Amino acid sequence: MEPEPELERLRAALLAVPDGRLPDRDWLTEALARVGSEPAALGRLFAAAGRRCGREPLPDLPDWTADDAARVLLLAALPPTELPGQAETCYRHGDAAEKRAVLRALPLLPAVGDAGVPLLHDAIRTNDTRLVSAALGPYADRLDQAAWRQAVLKCVFTGIPLSAVSGLDRRADAELTTMLAGFADERRAAGRDMPADATALLDRLSVLHRSGTPARSGAEEA
Amino acid sequence: MRIFDPHIHMTSRTTDDYERMAAAGVRALVEPAFWLGQPRTSAASFVDYFDSLVGWEPFRAAQFGIRHHATIALNPKEANDPRCREVLDLLPRYLDKDGVVAVGEVGYDSMTPEEDEVFAAQLALAVEHELPAMVHTPHRDKARGTERSLAVIAESGLEPGRVVIDHLNEVTVPLVRDTGCWLGFSIYPETKMSPPRMVELLRKYGTERMLVNSAADWGRSDPLLTRATGEAMLAAGFGDDDVDQVLWRNPVEFYGQSGRLDLGADEASGETGPGTFEGNSILRGGS
C-alpha cells in the first residue's frame, strides 16, 4: 500500500458517494484548504467530520467509513511539519471515532514518523475493540515484538478477527506460537473453543515452529 | 415498548443493568455529566470522566444494542470548588463531539454566586455551540431554585424550547409548564417521583414536552423505572401511542435539536415513526 495513491483512492471514494445530503462536499473542500493554511483550525473540523461527511461505509471502498476517510484527508492536508503534533492532539482530544481515524491514518502519513507509536500503545491498552483493531494496521510494524504479540493475543481474547492484524504470518514467531498454544490449553481446560481464525493460525505456526523450545529473541524484548 | 432514557448515569451502572434495560426496551439513552459522589480535586479528573462519556461508555452500551449519548458540563455542586473551575475552559472541545447532544447538567445546587456565574457561562456555551441545555433543579429549596433557574435561562437568550428543566415534581411543574421549556421527571424508588404520581401528572398536564427518566446513578435508583412508568400509563388507560410519545418521541424531539442524535436502525423500527430533525441520523432512511 503506497500512501499517496491510497490517499487519492480515499478522496475519490469519498467524493463518489452518490449525491445526497452527505458528504457535504463544500464543507470538505473548505476544511481541507483551511487546515493547510491554518493548522490550529483542525481540532473543531476533525470533531465535526462525522456530522458533515457521514459515518457509513464508502460504496467504492467498503473497508472505510466516510468519517474515517474525511479525517484522514484532513490530517493529510496539514503542512507536514505540523503533522506529528496535530495527529497526537487529535488522538488525545478525540472521542472514540476520532481516535480510530488517527490510528487508521498513521500508515498513510509518512511525515508522522515514529510519533504515532505511543498512540498505538494507548489504543492497545484500551478494551475498545474498534481501537485495538485500528491500531494493528501496517503502522504496527513499528511496535516492538513483545507489544505486538500481546496485541495479537488481545485480539484473540476479545474476539477481534485476526484479519485486522497486518502482516500476521510474516511476523508471527515461535513465542507467539507458544502463547497461542497456552491460550488454547486454557480454553480446552475450560471446555471452551478458540476462535476459528486463531486455531487456524496456531495450526500454521505449529508446522513452522514445531522444533523444541520456543525461540526467545532477547534483543527485541527490550 | 421502545424507550429512550433521557437521563441516566451509566458510568455508575453494571453490564447487568445494560442487559436488563435492553430486555425492557431501552434502545437509546443520554448520560449527563454530573457529580460522582466523591468530589474531584482537579480539572484533569474531569478530562478522564468526559473522555469516558464520549469513548468507553458508548462502546459498552453498544455491546447491548443501546445508543449512548452524553451531555457535558461542570455540575453546580462542583462549580463551588475553585480547583474545578478550569473545567469551564475544557468544555468547548467536548461540546464539539458527535455524541454530545446538550450542555448539562447545569443549574443550581446551593444557589451560590459561584453557581450563578458557572450556570450563566454554560448557557452561553449552549448558545454558541447550538446545543440544547439540561437544567438540574436543586433538591433543597427546589421551588425557589426552579424560579431562579428560569430567570437565568430567560436572560441567556437560549430559546425555552431548547431547555429541559429536570427533576420536577407536583410543586414545580406549574412554574415551568407555561414557559415553553421541556419538563423532566426523574422516577426514583423513593425520592423525587414515582410511576403512579407521574401518571397523575401526565393526566393533568398532558404528554407534550414531558420527559420521563430514571436518573439512575450510584444512589438508590432503578434503571427500569422508565418501563414501569410506561406500564403504569397503560394500566391507567393511556394508549400505546401516548406511551411511545413520552418514552421515545419526546426525547428524540428534544435532543434531536442538537442535530447529533444517532439512532441508527431504530429510526425505521417504529410503527409511529419519529419526526424529522435536521442533521440527525433519523433522517437517513433505512430498511
Automatic annotation (TrEMBL), chain A:
The name this protein goes by in its record:
Sugar phosphate isomerase
Automatic annotation (TrEMBL), chain B:
Q: What is this protein called?
A: TatD family hydrolase
- In the record, what terms sit under GO molecular function? hydrolase activity
Does the keyword section mention Hydrolase?
yes
Family per UniProt? Belongs to the metallo-dependent hydrolases superfamily.
Q: Where is this region: Disordered?
A: 264-287
Q: What domain of life does the UniProt record list for this protein's source?
A: Bacteria
Respond yes or no to whether keyword Kinase is given for this record. Answer: no
InterPro entries in UniProt: Metal_Hydrolase, TatD-like, UCP005295
Keyword vocabulary terms for this entry? Hydrolase, Metal-binding
What organism does the UniProt record list as the source?
Answer: Plantactinospora endophytica
